[in-house]
Specification:
With 615 residues, this protein is of the alpha/beta class. It is built from 24 helices and nine strands. The strands form two sheets. A five-stranded mixed β-sheet has the order 5-8-9-7-6. The N and C termini lie far apart (74 Å). About 2% of the residues have low confidence. Homodimer. This is Mannitol-specific phosphotransferase enzyme IIA component. InterPro entries: PTrfase/Anion_transptr (IPR016152), PTS_EIIA_type-2_dom (IPR002178), PTS_EIIB-like_sf (IPR036095), PTS_EIIB_2 (IPR013011), PTS_EIIB_2/3 (IPR003501), PTS_EIIB_mannitol (IPR029503), PTS_EIIC (IPR003352), PTS_EIIC_2 (IPR013014).
């Protein structure tokens, strides 16, 4: 039964992630609509009939179309987005309510149909006809999808919306709305909040707001009061790491609106869910008593974002409700902590790991896939580092903030952002994801460097990333003067290659395996050039063993036999890119005469050789 419950929760959580992926990228547009409504509606802060005419078209056309486009794009890129937006117009025009549920259906459905159609034509289009086939296949499929949405899916969703709205109205009419948090608060900690908020409360709230100008459903999940109360209880009555870290998380939760960081504080002591529930129910009673509501979705759920989309008539009771939620949650949480005191320093880390494990269940991923255990940016130009998760909010926002701060302190000029995995840009250089999401991110952007973390909030990988970026910013010089040596030790060319390889290895230019590639090259194609010079280097397959372009040189006055030629100057090369070519050019131009080589070797002139190789 336990496995069945976990599997069911994972499926619901994954479904919530899909819904969230359609809504989250468009939250800014929802807030725009909400602010226009709050300010210019006849009951708003600055009533204005002329501006208020924007409210209805934005609600009925713009917002559902954006959701349809985003849903399609998440499943099949820009092509899926276009067909998703077109198909969504069918449900919009075919109904007289804001068609958010219809958009959540039509966007992904249209994209999947487009993907199937494209597969039918794959490999069968003659050169020169690709554009016309692609455009007309999209256009013709769009006709069928729009008509299906207009005549079938739109009416069905309208009936479904009516049934659900009636159920919600019954709950509201019987004064039971506050008790919805008995289910909502545990769902948040179990990462089912996206399924509830964006799949049920959001669409129903928009329908209510279209009729009444506001909806209490918008504030049931985003209210930050319960979580802040729990964190304040840990701040004053907690122990160990939880007590030390709770104040900072409380500030992030209250004013940044990110709920996820407080989940571990409940998971480490499950009794604390009672504090969260009591706080939420108390606040909801205030909201219901005064008929409060928001005009749009508040996301992320901070005190500021809630007030930003609150009508002016509801400001005071909404503030009172959030503060009462905080106070009640704090009081109940303090009582629980005083009653069940412990000093387990590792409890929070265990809870964070448990939280990440639970979140991973809904991602479809598994294990550390594609993670770079040893980060290496050598030879790479890193400009964009993105921290990615399902929705591009919550934990990835926290991770990006931490990494951005560390990069700034290190003086790195790089762009660090958080983003949803489907929205990773084509020019991203490095993608940081939770280990359970790395496989998805690699499918989305296979050309990027992918780094897995097991915890977005406290991963040691962030320090390693910054350290490696700093090293890449200040790369090794191709040739160090101390890597030009005069020696009579080597007796064979294998001895020389070993000495060269060890110099390159010591300074971090190559791995230990590069020497084998140099020896293999000599067997396949000897590297003596004439004039007493040899330039040993690895075979092509050994290039992966090069960390940075480097050169080391040996002056061997007594000379060694190198394929029937006496070699007295050996220049070993590890070429990761094009940096070493200028040195080879100098060798060709300056040391093309045997007399020039003899003079340097006889004089044992390291300074002159360094000057020639680096000028």
């Amino acid at each position: 039964m336990g496995n069945e419950a976990t599997g069911f929760r994972a499926r619901i959580q994954k479904f919530g992630g899909v819904l969230s992926g359609m809504v989250m990228p468009n939250i800014g547009a929802f807030i725009t609509w909400g602010l226009i409504t709050a300010m210019f509606l006849k009951t708003g802060w600055f009533p204005n009939e002329k501006i208020a005419v924007l409210i209805d078209p934005m609600l009925k056309y713009l917002l559902p179309t954006l959701i349809g486009y985003t849903g399609g794009k998440n499943f099949y890129g820009d092509r899926g987005g276009v067909i998703g937006a077109a198909a969504t117009m069918g449900v919009i025009v075919g109904s007289d309510i804001p068609m958010f549920m219809g958009a959540m259906i039509m966007g992904p459905l249209a994209a999947l149909c487009m993907k199937r159609v494209d597969r039918l034509f794959e490999g069968r289009i003659k050169p020169g006809f690709e554009m016309i086939v692609n455009n007309f296949s999209c256009g013709i499929l769009g006709i069928f999808l729009v008509l299906a949405a207009f005549f079938a899916i739109g009416p069905f969703v309208q009936v479904l919306n009516h049934v659900m709205s009636s159920g919600v109205n019954v709950i509201i009419d019987h004064g039971l709305t506050p008790f919805a948090s008995v289910f909502i608060e545990p769902a948040k900690v179990l990462f089912l909040n996206n399924a509830i908020n964006h799949g049920i409360l959001g669409p129903l709230g928009i329908t209510q707001a279209a009729e009444a100008g506001k909806s209490i459903l918008f504030i049931l999940e985003p209210n930050p009061g319960p979580g802040v109360g729990v964190l304040l209880a840990y701040t004053f009555f907690g122990t160990g790491t939880a007590k030390k870290t709770a104040p900072g998380v409380a500030i992030i939760h209250a004013f940044g609106g990110i709920h996820e960081p407080y989940f571990p504080y409940i998971l480490m002591k499950p009794q604390m869910i009672l504090a969260s529930i009591c706080g939420a129910v108390s606040g909801n009673f205030i909201f219901q008593m005064f008929g409060c509501g928001l005009v749009a979705t508040a996301s992320p759920g901070s005190y500021f974002s809630v007030l930003a989309v609150a009508p002016k008539s509801d400001y005071l009771p909404i503030i009172a409700g959030m503060l009462i939620s905080t106070a009640v949650s704090f009081g109940v949480g303090a009582f629980i902590l005083r009653l069940c005191r412990d000093s387990d320093e590792e409890a929070l880390q265990k809870a964070v790991a448990k939280k990440d494990s639970m979140k991973a269940e809904g991602t479809g991923g598994g294990g550390r896939i594609g993670a770079r255990e040893v980060i290496d940016f050598t030879g790479k130009v890193i400009k964009k580092v993105y921290v990615a998760c399902d929705a591009g909010m919550g934990s990835s926002a926290m991770g990006a903030s931490i990494l951005k701060d560390k990069a700034k302190q290190a003086g790195l000029d790089i762009e660090v952002k958080n983003v949803a995995i489907p929205n990773l840009p084509a020019d991203v250089d490095v993608v940081v994801t939770h280990e359970s999401l790395t496989e998805r991110a690699m499918r989305e952007r296979p050309e990027a460097i992918h780094i897995s973390v097991d915890n977005f909030l406290s991963s040691p990988k962030y320090d390693e990333i910054v350290r490696k970026l700093t090293e890449a910013k200040n790369p090794l010089p191709v040739l160090k003067k101390e890597n030009i040596k005069v020696t009579d030790q080597p007796k064979t060319k294998e001895d020389v290659i070993h000495m060269i390889a060890q110099m390159l290895l010591k300074d971090g230019y190559v791995t230990e395996s590069y020497e084998k590639g140099m020896l293999l090259r000599e067997k396949e194609n000897p590297t003596n050039l004439g004039n007493g010079i040899a330039i040993p280097h690895g075979v092509l397959e050994a290039k992966k063993e090069i960390k940075a372009s480097g050169i080391a040189a040996l002056i061997v006055p007594d000379g060694i036999l190198w394929n029937d030629e006496t070699v007295r100057l050996v220049i070993g090369i590890a070429g990761a890119d094009q940096e070493h070519l200028s040195i080879l050019s100098n060798v060709a131009l300056t040391l093309n005469q045997e007399e020039a080589v003899r003079k340097i070797v006889d004089d044992r002139d390291v300074e002159e050789l360094y000057h020639i190789l680096t000028k």
